[in-house]
Specification:
CATH class of the largest domain: Alpha Beta
CATH architecture of the largest domain: 3-Layer(aba) Sandwich
Radius of gyration: 27 Å
Strand order of the largest sheet: 3-1-2-5-4
Order of helices and strands: HEEEHEEHHHHHEEEHEHEH
Distance between the termini: 45 Å
Structural class: alpha/beta
């Protein structure tokens, strides 16, 4: 028999998933369509004991004709019975000798007719799982439901792989960024393109991004590495990226020639924008107002206080490591806020 506590635990697991998704989707209800089939749906939940083993087989199907979740329990006594329940999936084990460390969870199962990509799925299950009994209560605990919700919500929102946690996916981007700014073969343009691809994660937050944007003045033209249209109430942000190989500060904490040159370049952009109305028409009208300036150059965090608290001719100067530190802090604030909202006391954060 399946213990009552196991059935109750699994029901609470899905209830917590729904509750967490409900909280996380506040003000972003349109993204609910990206969630797994089991979110907010009514479910047939079946938990089977595999005969003469210490394993459970779990199958969850969404059925929106139901008025609420329905639970079933039972026992499977042969490989044929297992195949009937899990068809068309075939698990690679013999019921009489399941490896002791075996365990699998498959979600968002969607099987369509071969040769007809537009066909309605013939199978649209939410979950199939085989879990050892002593791992069941940890795998489907309330805490794991909260972790699952926050990772699924953020991964789906950013198009990340749900086989990994959201932090793991973020960390891959930050780790690669750290490597390439130290690698001599990644010249300035290659770093610019990497940052452009991952701008959502690495640059200050924005609503719209313009990469290698032309700025005009009479017959002259300059190219801004990035122009960011930010949230309402925040000024446009102009970003000049220089080589990480260039020094930022002299020994007396004054800017080097290279950094001064970058500051002058970005000041020239601002002058061009303000003097030529072609720069502020149509979708670029946000550039007509106040503008903030950011130069990213060099490496290291030795002068972090100067970088955080000082502006040089109205321009903030960061190193690439400073850019990464600021970006990590922004994502950690978001994850912490989300975690607090659904009751996670010790969220997993970027280090």
């Amino acid at each position: 028999m399946i213990p009552y506590e196991a059935i109750n635990m699994f029901a609470r697991y899905f209830h917590e998933l729904d509750n967490s998704f409900d909280i996380l989707s506040n003000h972003e209800e349109g993204r609910i369509t990206d969630l797994p089939a089991y979110a907010f749906g009514y479910r047939h939940i079946a938990i089977y004991r595999l005969s003469n083993t210490n394993f459970y087989l779990i199958k969850v199907d969404v059925d929106n004709t139901l008025d609420g979740d329905k639970g079933y329990t039972g026992q499977l006594n042969s490989n044929e019975e297992v195949r009937k329940v899990t068809f068309p999936f075939v698990f690679n084990f013999d019921l009489t000798k399941i490896p002791d460390d075996y365990g699998v969870v498959i979600e968002n199962i969607n099987v369509k007719q071969i040769g007809n990509p537009n066909a309605v799925p013939v199978i649209n299950d939410s979950m199939l799982a085989i879990v050892r009994e002593d791992r069941f209560y940890d795998t489907f605990s309330i805490e794991k439901a909260k972790d699952k919700a926050i990772n699924t919500w953020n991964n789906n929102k950013k198009g990340f792989d749900n086989n990994y946690t959201f932090i793991h996916n973020l960390k891959k981007i930050f780790d690669r960024a750290t490597l390439i700014i130290k690698k001599d073969s990644f010249v300035e343009r290659r770093i610019h393109r990497f940052i452009n691809t991952h701008a959502t994660y690495l640059l200050p937050s924005f609503k719209e991004k313009y990469f290698e944007h032309a700025i005009l003045f009479k017959e002259e033209k300059r190219v801004a590495d990035f122009v960011l249209k930010r949230e309402t109430g925040f000024p446009a942000l102009l970003i000049e990226l220089e080589s990480p190989n260039q020094p930022v500060f002299k020994n007396n904490h004054e800017l080097t020639y290279q950094a001064h040159h970058a500051v002058s370049q970005i000041s020239e952009w601002v002058s061009f924008i303000d003097l030529d109305s072609r720069n502020t028409v149509n979708e670029m009208d946000f550039m007509a107002g106040p503008k903030e300036r950011l130069v990213i150059i060099g490496r290291g965090l030795d002068n972090i206080k100067e970088m955080k608290n000082s502006k040089f001719s109205g321009t903030t100067v960061w190193t690439y490591e400073m850019m990464l530190e600021e970006a990590k802090a922004r994502w950690n604030r978001l994850i912490t806020e989300q975690s607090i909202s659904i009751g996670i006391s010790e969220p997993n954060l970027l280090k």
